[in-house]
Amino acid sequence: MSLANVFSIAGSGMSAQSTRLNTISSNIANAESVSSSTDQTYRARHPVFATVFQQSQSGDRGSLFAEQNQAGSGVEVLGVVEDQSSLTPRYEPNHPAANGDGYVYYPNVNVVEEMADMISASRAFQTNVEMMNTAKQMLQKVLTLGQ
Hints:
By secondary structure, this protein is of the alpha+beta class. It has one domain. The chain is 40% helix and 19% strand. The chain contains two helices and four strands; from the N terminus they run H-E-E-E-E-H. It has helices spanning 5-29, 111-144, and strands at residues 45-53, 72-82, 88-91, 103-106. A two-stranded antiparallel ribbon has the order 1-2. It is elongated and about 80 Å long. The two termini are 26 Å apart.
């Protein structure tokens, strides 16, 4: 792996963490939205990540051990899935969105967990930025070796 690959790997990590931060902010923004039915109530969303492996340089793709010898070359977002855990029904008969039984349904968003995830995602993003800065400094040092 060359030093230049660090930029694409860190960039894919930054992109993935950006998606994670966007879904977290969407979850927090909708944490108190209510509905009169479970079908219309907002459900928490979470991104699904996967490791991207380097394609082998040789044409030997049929090897049994090909995947064991491959290095990771980044991360990709496979999609965003809805959390299927139960919603929170509350008995509020005076609420304008209450159903016939007087219940409103709140999303399955735990704001404390979302804030902890936000801190984790922002630190992971910052780590990728630091990796890019370190790689840039190393490349600059390599350029000055011949002087």
